[in-house]
Structures are given as C-alpha cells and as structure tokens.
Specification:
Layout: H1 7-24, H2 32-38, H3 43-87, H4 96-126
Length: 135
C-alpha cells in the first residue's frame, strides 16, 4: 500500500536529517563527539554507538548520492552555499566561528534532506519512479 507524499514527509525527512547530523556534533556540547571524548562509558558502548552512527550516515550518504548523483550533490551544495553567503552579513560579529560551524552542519543536513526527499518529490510532480538496480 502506498501512502500519499505531502509536505509532512518532507518535514519529517528534514527533521531526521538535522537530528542525524547534529547528533554527531553540535556546538552546544550535547553530541556523540563530546560524549565519546569526555564520557566515562565503556569502550564497547562507544564502539557500538560509533558503528551505529557510521552505518546511519553511510546509508544516508549512499541514498543521497544514488538519487542526486554527484552532479546533483554539487548543485545542491552550491545552491545552499550561495544562500548561506547571502545570509552571512546577518551573523553577529562575535559569533563567527560558532555560526560557521552551524552553517556547515546545516548545509550537510539540508543536503541529506534534499537527497532523501528528491525521489518522492520528483515522483509527485512528474510521475517518474526511481528504481535501484541490484546486481
């Protein structure tokens, strides 16, 4: 059974993308990076969580590149970067480094969201279905 794809699906993919990126690192100090280096958790726990995050990002990245192809990835990144540069004058002068980190993390999350949503949006607008070849 297929379900109708609407704006809620895009928002869900956007939130999932931001969660997956900011779970690995964020400037607030509540991320895998800070937990891995500062927490007293055991080595096996850290290895399990690290492998889970690597697998998650590997799966997302494979999907993004598979759907957008490398040209699409470059095009989406260039468009997002141009948008960030247009908004750069709005960043307060004292928050330059934190703002730059947030910009890069947001670029990656938006790229993930674009790749995860593109196939569904393309199908909705043009009726084109994307099929993966399995060898």
């Amino acid at each position: 059974m297929t379900t109708r794809f609407d704006w809620r699906g895009v928002v869900a993919r956007l939130l999932f993308s931001f969660f997956s990126v900011f779970a690995v690192y964020n400037p607030s100090g509540h991320s895998w990076w800070h937990w891995f280096w500062l927490a007293e958790a055991g080595a096996w726990t850290k290895l399990a969580v690290t492998l889970l995050l690597v697998g998650l990002h590997g799966l997302i990245w494979t999907t993004v590149v598979g759907v957008l192809k490398w040209r699409g990835v470059v095009l989406v990144l260039a468009t997002l970067f141009a948008g960030c540069m247009a908004l750069a004058p709005l960043v307060p002068p004292g928050a330059q480094m934190g703002g730059f980190r947030l910009m890069l993390l947001s670029l990656l999350a938006l790229l993930y969201a674009a790749g995860l949503s593109y196939s569904h949006i393309h199908h909705r607008l043009a009726g084109v279905s994307h099929v993966e070849k399995v060898h």
